[in-house]
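Fold this sequence, please.
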Amino acid sequence: MRFVKLGIISFVVLFLLLTAIGSLFPSNVIVSRAVDIAVSADSVKPYIAQYSKWNDWMEGAKTSELKVVAKDSTEAFFGTMIIRETAQTDSSWSHDWKGRSTVQHSTIQVIPGATFCTVQWKFEQHLKWYPWEKFSSMMNDKILGTSMEKSLANLKQQLEHH
């Protein structure tokens, strides 16, 4: 009985300690990447605006089993993720990426320049207070950022060598 009581108390103290440390982490996590592409902004916009073109440049969408499949002009599927367009302007597109348990907000912005344009892509995620969510968010930049960098490099290569 003594060991059971010690185990329960240890578990509660550990949980409270992890929750306290996790509360020091931010509740909103933003991962952002950008690339300069030596083409006009008008050449880039169709690759961002149309889900069917995402398979040409998005990392992971080049295999036969994992593609961006458009349901309509505002919703698509990417594996188990549902991508839903939430806002669009002349130079930016916002989407919600809904997974099994998380929702991330994505914004892709095309910024025109004199001889090139800049494509900026960012993901925002609001975290709950759960310690496992806060600690797992430390990997967002490493995992998501790497995929975003590769995708933007693919987009750059696709457009500059087209």
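Residues 27-160 form a domain with the Alpha-D-Glucose-1,6-Bisphosphate; Chain A, domain 4 fold (CATH 3.30.530.20). The two ends are 72 Å apart (CA to CA).
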